[in-house]
Write a structure and sequence with these properties.
By secondary structure, this protein is α+β, with helices and mostly antiparallel strands. The protein is about 25% helix and about 25% strand.
Length: about 325
């Protein structure tokens, strides 16, 4: 087992906190790719107070902090990452409270709660607003941070407020009009999203379930959902010639790159914007292929691709 560095010793950061700690923790099992190295420490705070205190101590000791959501939009390097990785899987970070106020229901949702599970429960309750996100793997916090969405809508459309514990350990709540939601981006300040309030609309349950099924069926027909991937590798870029946002998958397809392989990683033959992995693949295979696809797509189409998937590497911010 790799020894933790002195700042990560349990007596320094964790001993008197209500947290669960795993040193030299393999991270691949927490990601959709299922590959990658270990974190020096994987920490599961059991309360918001424990999270806030931990963040203050990490800041004071110069310990790097990363937050792990559902692991869907993430590639962990083969050498893992230094510092503390925080996983919000305690009950206080996975709550769902529904408060109906006429035709609108304010849904208070924990930042660590699974988006797919939340969609299922709100649809079953006859509440519309999240069903456009069906098929997008994410935690609520991760989905809000990147304004996850697709052709049917984005989560920012229903956000009423967001609560964040900053890396200084201070908890702050931001109303909808204080946050700018853009394509795969928000201007939320740095920190960890612990909860949010979403505005959902009362809807006829049967019709809502049918719409959810239609969206799910469409996505299953065009995306390799059964494969190991991290979802779309690249954001849909703005074409420099037209100023219009275009499909990254189509650009990759037009560049003739479907099926391109590096080691155990390949561009999905079903959808060009998905890089899938086979048994024995390494994170370096995915990273090399992602760079190759971006370079070749630019060379052949003149459009630059920006990654949507986050890469974690040891020693890199």
């Amino acid at each position: 087992m790799t020894m933790a560095t002195p700042p990560l010793a349990s007596t320094t950061l964790f001993a008197d906190l209500d947290v669960a700690v795993e040193l030299d923790a393999p991270l691949g099992r927490h990601t959709w790719y299922g590959i990658g190295g270990s974190a020096d420490a994987l920490v599961r705070p059991q309360t918001v107070q424990a999270l806030a205190t931990l963040l203050r101590r990490c800041a004071r000791n110069g310990v790097r902090v990363r937050v792990l959501g559902s692991g869907a939009n993430l590639l962990v390097g083969d050498d893992g990452v230094e510092g503390v990785v925080i996983l919000l899987d305690a009950p206080c970070f996975k709550e769902l409270q529904l408060n109906a106020e006429g035709p609108v229901t304010a849904a208070r949702v924990g930042g660590g709660r699974d988006l797919a599970k939340t969609i299922h429960e709100t649809v079953a309750a006859g509440l519309a607003g999240l069903e456009p996100l069906i098929g997008i793997p994410a935690s609520i916090g991760g989905a809000i941070r990147m304004n996850a969405g697709g052709k049917y809508g984005a989560i920012g459309d229903v956000v009423q407020s967001v609560t964040i514990v900053g890396f200084d350990g201070e908890e702050r709540t931001y109303a909808r009009d204080q946050v700018r939601f853009e394509y795969r981006h928000t201007d939320l300040p740095a920190g960890i999203i612990t909860s949010a309030v979403l505005s959902l609309r009362a809807s006829e349950p049967l019709g809502l379930r049918e719409r959810a099924k239609e969206i799910s069926k469409y996505k299953a027909s065009v995306q390799p959902l059964a494969e190991h991937s991290a979802g779309c590798m690249y954001k849909n870029p703005v074409h420099p010639a037209t100023g219009q946002r275009v499909s990254a998958g189509k650009l990759i397809d037009d560049a003739g790159l479907k099926g391109t392989r590096v080691g155990g990683a390949l561009v999905s033959p079903q959808h060009g914007n998905f890089i899938v992995v086979e048994p024995g693949a390494r994170a370096s295979d995915v990273a090399e292929l992602a760079a190759l696809v971006a370079d070749e797509t630019f060379r052949r189409t003149g459009v630059r691709l920006e990654r949507e998937v986050v890469f974690w590497r040891r020693g890199e911010a």
